Sequence to fold (901 residues):
Amino acid sequence: MRSLFRFHGGVKPATNKAASTTEPIVKAPLPGRLVVPLHQSIGGTPCPLVRAGQRVLKGELIGAADGNVSSAVHAPTSGLVKAVEPALMAHPSGLTMLSVIIEPDGEDRWAELERLNYRSTPPDELRDFVRDAGIVGLGGAVFPTHLKMNPGRESRTRTLVLNGAECEPYITCDDMLMRERAAGIVKGTAILRHLLQADEVLIGIEDNKPEAAAAMRAAVQAEGESMEVVAIPTRYPAGGAKQLIRVLTGIEVPHGRRSTDFGVQCFNVGTAYAVFEALTCGHPLISRIVTVAGNVDRPRNYEVLVGTPMSDVVRLSGQRADTNRYLMGGPMMGMRMPGFDVPVVKATNCILVASDALFPPPPPEQACIRCGECARACPADLQPFELYWFSRAKNFGKAQEYHLFDCIECGCCAYVCPSHIPLVDYYRFSKSEIWARERDKSASDQARERFEFRNFRQEREKEEKAARLAAKAAETRAKLATEPAVDCAAMAPAADAAEDPKKALIAAALARAKAQRAAIQPKNTDNLSAETQAEIEQIDARRRTTGSASAALAPAEADPSAPDTQP
Amino acid sequence: MIHSPYIRKPASVQRVMGTVLVALLPGIAAYVWQFGAGILVNLALASLAAIAIEALVMRLRKRPVALAVTDLSAVVTAWLVVLSVPPIVPWWITLLAVIISIGVAKHLYGGLGQNPFNPAMVAFCALIVAYPALMSQWPGAGQLDFAAQLDLILGGARQPDGITAATALDALRTGMRSGASVGTVLSGSDAFGVAGGKGWEWVAAGYALGGLILLGTRVITWHLPTAFVAMLSIVSGGFWLVDPAQHASPLFHLASGGAMLAAFFIVTDPVSGATTPRGKLIFAAGIALIAWLIRSFGAYPDGIAFGVLLMNICVPLIDMKTQPPVFGHRGERT
Fold:
């Protein structure tokens, strides 16, 4: 028996998982319309590769990864691209995102699929393949997976952690995936292990999922892999990557550091399965398992195509009448959706159907009595109430000093707070204020630098000009001294040139300018052919006549087109 | 805006305060059993006054009245004040104590959650300085019937000498002043019981039982009571071992005066106390040390209230210097 470590705090809310695990995963039917957002991972937004009116096949690339920190997007089924336009995102902001809208043709015909033998493919190619298969972290963070398939600085990983903890209440998509497709997960994990050169593989599953753990153990044995399935105590947020790594290995990965720096890498079980599907079957990530739970008659897990409207999926489970919103994710960290028909995306692990009866609005906020319940519940070992006081006072410096940015927003503090203070909201407020200030500061820093450089440049140019003028003046003076009567002899003021060198200078300059003016001719009238010359003269003559005519008619309005030709 | 989490533990300030009131009941029961029902009159009076003052001040501050009155925090303060002062103080002392604790020590600093000083202890200190005589008239066990107590509380002339007895701490202090050793004082007065003051040791036991309720329901953590009891035992025990003739035993210190009430109900006030685990240990130990020093060498028979206020002053510093390491930052200096 492996000895486990524990993380501080955590809470044990009612798990509400049983209801959605009674029925197997079922494929959701093809919807009438798919809205596939192009930006479905952390990083750059893929640019669309299809136009409205174009036919696409299932699995066809419709958005190519924009740079390395990005992930590709594919057509979830075959059909017609109706539009490429902004559509409402699955995000509480209510903002829109460029999306490819596909009308399925019902044939569900696959594009030509490319498979890969991971053992005979160099790692770089494997990573590119995974990026182009659109695989991102399916635990909810949607971090591009290919970026994590890297052994890190020491070029080898000690422990590969597979996250099957699934600690959020209601969500059972990983549970059901492990029960039903354990072999695929284990095969995918073997691929990840190969890339990371990991010594050991630990599959962490909360001990409230014995069926999943048993299925995984059986699959590990059947595949002949040396991986250890570890049942961990059920305590939210044990499924947080850092908490799970802590429980399994005892290592604490601080905020802002990569777990690979400590020889650990962590993937969600769903991600491992997606890697397996991509390499072995050639299927890019176009669907995922989604739990539908909460205010529905038949909670269940569905395999849903990315881009399917959430309401289409929820309808399958029998949405209850008093439903007033959908949450994406669980009740601890889920996000409220801006509408019912926002599309299922790669991050959608659960559609939690909510009503005010199921998730009543919080009681009125009361004063903080510093009871410290939040500090006892905080898995990041923070003093949440101190952060609350600092956030309330907008004392952001102090908040950062007390490690505000180590907060993982798991919600444990707000869950236990007897004063019903929406603590996490305060931290989000502080974080966004600090980010905004840093943005402002860097913007104003840039502006100040630009301004200072402009002043410097203007000053420098002034000095250079002065130096140039002085040099020129000296030169002219020297010239005048050696040959006093050159051009100026013809000029009237030249008489007193000897007495007043300044006047002489001016006179000389004037003379030079005159000569220059005389020398300058309109360049495009040089070297003209005889006919053109004649034509120009003709036009000039005509202009002269009309010019004088119009001048005669309206002397106040001289023809502006030919001012120079006025007699 | 994101508003997760959408579920909450069924916890409330009201429930916390209610648990504290329930936990006080064993101590109050022992009090009534040993010293008569007079304390109940003052408790009822103080509770009503506390709610009235809370409502009045919240109204003056233009804050929601209903929420503040129903959170029971004012009632907890009122009960703690009444249990800290003699049970037979006249009604206006009780009223004054409630006004000072809730009106001044709590609301002048900004209300619930904002007060730097323990409101009950502020009231106690103000009154013992202002009315030292009334504040030191403690009845002996079984000495006064309910009618006599009611008469003392609700009015009438007071003849202190006839109606009160010296408490254990008082008797010990007076006896020691006259040059006697601890042993002779303890055996020579009927103010003493088995461990501490006669009758009072039962009340202390009641408070300790209530403290276990608070620990069991996780309203308080072990740090504060343990550090308080440990420090009081260590410092009194050390001197007692060296010179038992001049210093009372740890058991005597723990069972006398407000030690048990303080250990579980006074030093555990979350608002004005230290909040970090290490900070709690320092805070409670500091109070115990100051209390013992005042008991042994000071001008007052008991020093817990002063100890609490003095340590309240140190709380921001203690909290700042005892911040526990954050996840992933263990081993770094914070």
